[in-house]
């Protein structure tokens, strides 16, 4: 059985697993198991500027992106809050206003402070 890691934000040892996410009951931080495994393997997800991305970050799109299968375009500057990192070629899972759930490549986004 895998041990549940401590919360990366507050260090609480009372974290638990829920539907593929780790949850901290003390600070309400949630993070995915996949991103934890990626970090343990020594792989890091970085944005277009080389900044390390983590679950819960806010990102901004750095160029217009065509949405495959539609005539819609994600405009430069579109922001996504509370991202999740996944192990795929599109390594960011997020929700974009006006588009809904979307998977993006980290090379087309930048981290917003």
Automatic annotation (TrEMBL):
<protein>
    <submittedName>
        <fullName>Alkylphosphonate utilization protein</fullName>
    </submittedName>
</protein>
<dbReference type="InterPro" id="IPR013988">
    <property type="entry name" value="YjdM_C"/>
</dbReference>
<comment type="similarity">
    <text>Belongs to the YjdM family.</text>
</comment>
<feature type="domain" description="Protein YjdM C-terminal">
    <location>
        <begin position="45"/>
        <end position="112"/>
    </location>
</feature>
<dbReference type="InterPro" id="IPR004624">
    <property type="entry name" value="YjdM"/>
</dbReference>
<dbReference type="Pfam" id="PF08274">
    <property type="entry name" value="Zn_Ribbon_YjdM"/>
</dbReference>
<feature type="domain" description="Protein YjdM N-terminal">
    <location>
        <begin position="4"/>
        <end position="32"/>
    </location>
</feature>
<dbReference type="Pfam" id="PF03831">
    <property type="entry name" value="YjdM"/>
</dbReference>
<dbReference type="InterPro" id="IPR013987">
    <property type="entry name" value="YjdM_N"/>
</dbReference>
């Amino acid at each position: 059985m895998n041990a549940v890691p401590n919360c990366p934000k507050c260090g609480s040892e009372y974290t638990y697993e829920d539907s593929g996410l780790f949850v901290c009951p003390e600070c309400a931080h949630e993070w995915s198991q996949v991103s934890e495994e990626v970090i343990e393997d020594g792989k890091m997800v970085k944005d277009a500027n080389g900044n390390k991305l983590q679950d819960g970050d806010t990102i901004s799109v750095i160029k217009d992106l065509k949405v495959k299968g539609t005539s819609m375009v994600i405009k430069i500057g579109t922001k996504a809050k509370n991202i999740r990192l996944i192990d795929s070629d599109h390594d960011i899972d997020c929700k974009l206003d006006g588009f809904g759930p979307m998977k993006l490549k980290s090379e087309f986004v930048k981290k917003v402070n």
